[in-house]
Amino acid sequence: MLIVCFRTLISSVRITLKDVTTSENTHYLEAQGGLAYWPAWRSVQVVFPKKDVHRVPEHWGSFGARISPLTHSPRLAVNPPNAILNYLYAILEAETRLAIAALGLDPGLGFLHFDSRTRDSLVCDVMEPVRPQVDAYLLEWLGREPLRKEWFCEQRDGNCRLMGSFAARLAETAPAWSRAVAPFAEWVARVLWGTLLKPTSRRAPAARLTQNHRRTAKGVAPNVKPNLPPRPPTVCRMCGTVIGFGRRYCPTCNLTIAREGMIEAAKLGRVKGHSPEALARQSEKQRKHAAAVQAWNPSDKPPWLTEEVFLQQIQPRVAALTVPIISSAIGVSDPYAAPYRGENATPGVGVLRCGPERNGLVRIFAVYQD
């Protein structure tokens, strides 16, 4: 219910934003959207492998607040998901700064973000449309894969830091963010170029980042498909070992999980097998079997059915049938019917009635008793 309220508020802010004409109102609506957006992340769970659960702090188990208690800002995150998000934002900021510099713009002269000596305002403006892609990347990661404890360390003040090897893996997403921010940087350059007084012979700014002009000259659609960031590492949910995509456990832990599952299934089977309903079905089946054995008369055996006929004619045909056909024909379970297909099959007292494919074209009636 709370998520629905957040979505409603964000949708109303988005609709109102279309009619805004001043930067002050834009800043106000952005703040209102942020107040509804980040609280919706609080309950996002962070999963760790089973062996790491007792080693991680309790507040690492969820995304929590976006504002760090150490700085009262997103800086110096105190849990892994916020630390990852800060680092991905830093990579996006660096790629945006490079894109702006390649187009000959000043990264410090922004429009929506206030000028500050600690940041480049235009970089913050241009990277803003790509931030949802970074958020989606992290959110999908947290919902699909566990995080390893060894990827992070906690300092004395509670600041959560990324280990070097893990930070290097996150840095591999840089090409994806560079390609995503390129169209927005070129759009800003074109808008600024359109406001200048210039000779009509002067060409529009070059599309150095997307190469759209070159594509247009070759008759290729200028829209460039974005590069997807590399897939997050898949780790075993038990021991944390890096494994192949699509798996949940490593081979060693998978055997342990399967063994424990079989034990639990056996326990449930024992309980289910001793229920009043199961005992009633067993009693009814045993009564039917006892009645069939008692009603069987060895003298009814046809004269042609001898041990030699059974071994040479009947048994080879039975061996060619599938276990489900045999079990259905004689009214028993598959494990009980399986021995009939073996080379040393010896039918007990009763009637074996079966046929290939159950089509009734060939039926074997056999009664055999020592």
SSE inventory with pairings:
Elements lengths: L1 H16 L5 H15 L42 H23 L18 H7 L3 H14 L7 E3 L5 E3 L1 H8 L2 H21 L17 H6 L16 E2 L6 E2 L7 H23 L2 H20 L11 H13 L3 H8 L3 H4 L14 E3 L9 E3 L4
Antiparallel strand pairs: 1-2, 3-4, 5-6
Helix pairs in contact: 1-2, 3-4, 3-5, 3-7
Can you give a write-up of this model?
The chain is mainly α and 370 residues long. Among the domains are: 42-196 and 203-232, no CATH class; 297-366, no CATH class. 48% of the residues lie in helices and 4% in strands. The protein has helices at residues 2-17, 23-37, 80-102, 121-127, 131-144, 164-171, 174-194, 212-217, 251-273, 276-295, 307-319, 323-330, 334-337, and strands at 152-154, 160-162, 234-235, 242-243, 352-354, 364-366. It has a two-stranded antiparallel sheet with strand order 1-2. Strands 3-4 form a two-stranded antiparallel ribbon. A two-stranded antiparallel ribbon has the order 5-6. β1 (152-154) and β2 form a beta hairpin. α3 (80-102) packs across α4 (121-127). The protein is elongated and about 115 Å long.
